[in-house]
Design brief:
Layout: H1 5-25, H2 29-54, H3 58-88
Helix pairs in contact: 1-2, 2-3
Length: about 100
């Protein structure tokens, strides 16, 4: 049995749906960041699968850029979480709405 591109697309869809569910339902900032990472990894799976299917390296290069973007997002996100915890003693993403004008 051969693994076709539809298997990769289904895996990517499942990961993206899990990540989207986590972004929409979680209040914890760490879980929020992990859900965004799942969504980025789902996009990477699609990029690499279609690059392999079409026989070029463009999708793999974009996947590398996406991984670099994810690393930068984690660094900035952890900094924001540390400031959030330092100011509010909680990592709930709904708490800082009190800082609005």
């Amino acid at each position: 049995m051969s693994v076709g591109i539809e298997h990769y697309v289904i895996l990517s869809l499942a990961l993206f749906c899990i990540g989207l569910f986590g972004v929409l339902t979680r209040r914890n900032a760490l879980m929020f960041l992990m859900s965004v990472e799942l969504m980025l990894n789902a996009a990477n799976i699609n990029l690499i699968a279609f690059a392999f299917y079409h026989g070029n390296l463009t999708g793999q290069v974009f996947a590398l850029f996406t991984m670099a973007l994810a690393a930068a997002e984690v660094a900035v996100g952890l900094g924001i979480i540390l400031v959030l915890y330092r100011n509010f003693r909680d990592v709930d993403v709904t708490v800082p709405s009190a800082m609005r004008w």
